[in-house]
Amino acid sequence: MAVILGGGLGGLSTGYYLLKNGLYCNNLKVCLLEATDYCGGWIKSIRTKDYIFEQGPRTIRPKGPTGLNTLNMMQDLGLSEHVSAITPDHPAAKNRMIYVNKSLHLLPSSLKSVFKKNEPFSKPLIYAALNDLTQPHKSLNEDSIYNFVERRFGKEIADYAISPMICGICAGDAKEISVKFLMKTLFEYEQNHGSVIKGMVKSIFKENNNGNLEMSELAKRAKEERWNVYSLKGGLQIFPKTLMNYLKNKDIDIQLNSKVEELEFVDSSLVKVKKTDGQVLDASHVYSSIPSHVLAKLVNKQHPELAEHLKGIPFVTVGIVNLYFATDKPLVSPAFGFLVPPLENSPILGVVFDSCCIPDQNGTVLTVMLGGRWFNEKFGPDITKEELYNIAMKEIKSILKIEEKVAAFNVSILDKCIPQYVVGHYSRVDKIREYVQSKNLPLSLVGSSYDGVGINDVIYSAKAQVAQDCGQQ
Ligand SMILES: Cc1cc2nc3c(=O)[nH]c(=O)nc-3n(C[C@H](O)[C@H](O)[C@H](O)COP(=O)(O)OP(=O)(O)OC[C@H]3O[C@@H](n4cnc5c(N)ncnc54)[C@H](O)[C@@H]3O)c2cc1C
């Protein structure tokens, strides 16, 4: 029997791909153990007739092989009708803002705007390209994304474009996050061709492929219509719910309220999976999709060296304040929302204008994200939900000039919810996998701790791990 640890999207996708691979092409039984009373992990939607509050993720990117792969899965699960796309002409695709020097600024979104001066940038963005072409070559194995962008395109791009973007993607500090997290290809262009732009020009002549991925009708539509991002009508939680039911119907044994506290590796095809209720399961293989810091505790007794590597992956805590204003007219301009560069030293990371990007909402729905990499230094470990709500409201009033009464709200403190791919992350993950292989441990690592923090990455990583293990059978 194979045991999957964790019923977030990583664990559920592992079950899905085990089924797609004919459960190792024989009659392998699969059991998924989830600590809480629901599947979906950080994906949690509160839905009423007037609004949807997303406590975790809300949109998915359709681009690239990983994005198209997710759309294939969506179609296979019968979710095509739920998909709500944001196309390039939608205000949420065109209007993304940053908050700098006490005002909101629209980020350039067209080629034309690159030749104009856009505040808070002091020069037209085309100068950044010139900077890249004239910088001397610097040979490096790795770098932070901030350093890389500052070197190639200048400090303002690093401060006002990349730093807030990193806050939006992983609530992290661009000065710590590896360049390979988001800009691996651009970094390779720099290292191989001396400049990002020179590398880009050379790559135009190379064939662009999607990793030989077969495309479903939904994936083809996303490509043809050039979707920017998409959400799911009724809330994103419908995705893990549907996936869970799909697995259950195909006889995968899903056990909720089943927290695992220890893994005891007996030999290369037997692991004793010990639950907190005293039950022990014999597994021939374990797929761990739980956060790396949790897995560290489970393996610490037998494999302290592995536990140390796993513990080395840092995580950040994010505060989420969802707000609903029962207004006839929207209280904010049509846009995706805004991000706040860390330079501003604000308690908030940004605000998403949900009523613009997610369909079927009455009134104005906003989500304020707080803390992230700076959660502890700004709020300390004991901040209450009420205090977070008050901080979020103060910022909303001051930045968006909203005075209306909130009709409904929800506050969540998501403890250690996003792993940080800091400089050195990828070699750490290699070391972790090398350790597992060298000790012949029947253990595969999936989920957001290792191969990408977004929904697409987590699904694709499950697919890749299962395919690799199937090849080894
Ligand atoms: C606030 C926020 C916003 C985000 N926004 C986006 C977005 O807009 N787009 C996007 O693509 N991605 C986004 N992400 C990332 C996305 O949510 C994650 O990539 C994805 O949900 C991670 O899934 P996972 O299965 O790896 O981990 P998790 O969701 O953490 O699932 C792990 C599961 O393991 C269970 N578990 C833990 N310990 C044990 C144990 N001992 N025994 C058994 N079970 C255990 C947990 O209960 C949980 O259900 C966001 C994340 C957050 C936190």
Describe the protein's architecture and organization.
With 473 residues, the chain is of the alpha/beta class. The protein is built from 18 helices and 19 strands. The strands form 5 sheets. The chain has a 7-stranded mixed β-sheet with strand order 7-6-15-16-17-14-18, sandwiched between helices. It has a 5-stranded parallel β-sheet with strand order 9-2-1-13-19, with helices on one face. It starts with a strand and ends with a helix. The mean pLDDT is 94. Bound molecules: flavin-adenine dinucleotide. Flavin-adenine dinucleotide binds at residues 5-11, 33-36, 41-43, 56-60, 259-260, 289-291, 294, 318, 320, 414, 417-418, 447-448, 453-455, 458.
| Terminal-residue CA separation | 14 Å
Radius of gyration: 23 Å
Q: Give the beta-strand count.
A: 19
Largest sheet features: 7 strands, mixed
The pLDDT mean sits at 94
Q: Widest sheet: strand order?
A: 7-6-15-16-17-14-18
Summing up helix and strand content along with how strands pair, one would put the structural category as: alpha/beta
User: What count of helical segments does DSSP give?
Assistant: 18
Bound molecules: flavin-adenine dinucleotide
Low-pLDDT residue spans: none
Per the principal axes of the C-alpha atoms, what is the gross shape?
Answer: globular
As a percent range, the share of helical residues equals 25-40%
Determine the strand fraction and express it as a percent band.
Answer: 15-25%
